[in-house]
């Protein structure tokens, strides 16, 4: 009998997103997406707080007119579009039970506002799902992973415009109908909380186009909440045996000290993070956000019926990404360290990755327990992992013990949380195959069990190589997390 802390049928696997993986940005009838417009900027030259944010019309124009030599890494990805069979065979060799991927919205509706989908795009995902199912790997599909068609930005200023809800619903219904027999696990918006931090990536908005920025950000978010709930409704109607969830970039926030000011600051930061899942899991805006809107003169325009839509079509499970924790201080001038999109005070008890992300396996257990207590719905960790520089040794091997250590510690804490009563249904580590970084567009920031021979400028053979962590993770899955 197994002594594993992980339940039978636990969904082990890996996670990716179309824009960081597929490449072939202008093949198969695909339209441009917002991430196709993000240029690589070397580390020394980075100036923006969120490097991938495009703010204005002029900036977008410049990117659209960039010369031939411009470096847009997400346009080339790692060429999964042409190599998916080889990659899926490697996932199968590791024993994946599930594979998280996203559908690129502009592959299906190139402009976003058409009435008829692009058959070539639909056929591509049919082939990918068939290949996964051939090996018994369940596809776990995100409808929108920062892949808004660029045309919707240009014509409607993205999610600021209510009409985008209708376009998204059409897209969601199209893929639910088409893949109803193939895909049983769905997610609506990846890291929906990014929309308040990066309006371009999260909501497809050029923020310089609007007068009242905060108002526009929350209005766009409201439209996404409604669209997400309508997608849940459609999924339940079209694929009754499917599960559909929401997705949060989870930040566990600690108070810097036991000074009540720090404790309050941490609580408030945490509420800001959990607000998104409050709406999607509980089905209504929490009172602390309503007070915040009132204090800041933000008025969300709701159509009759919106509240009912949110309340009726809540998600079946809650998924989240977890890379780091944060520290909040009650004192406003405390120096903040930069993380992914987030920043906080340095935690002296934790080490950080080469990108300054503070590594905190126990924080994952804290978060699992807290989220389960708060929501009482199944949880799914759909991203976690270590972005690191890897070295290919002379004999071709890649000894990524640091990655194994990171994952081992996090998986162990997951096991403890399950033992302590948390209903966790799966784990897909981020970037199971090296891919383009979301925040920096680097290729050299690697997360994979599988190495891809490509550098930040697109040089390389794209050859795939197994890292040491490949065999390690294979054994973790084979023993259902018993041997770490
Ligand atoms: C999450 C995103 O924010 O973190 C992924 O959902 C992203 O798309 C991942 O790749 C890791 O971030 P980065 O910037 O290291 O790629």
TrEMBL record:
Active site positions, chain numbering: 383 (nucleophile)
GO biological process: carbohydrate catabolic process
Coiled coil feature spans: none
CC per GO annotation: cytosol
Key words of the record: Glycosidase, Hydrolase
Similarity comment text for this entry: Belongs to the glycosyl hydrolase 1 family.
Record field: transmembrane: none
InterPro entries the record matches: GH, GH_1_N_CS, Glyco_hydro_1, Glyco_hydro_1_AS
Hydrolase recorded as keyword: yes
Key word Zinc-finger present: no
Record protein name field: 6-phospho-beta-glucosidase
GO molecular function: beta-glucosidase activity
Leader sequence residues: none
Organism: Natronobacillus azotifigens
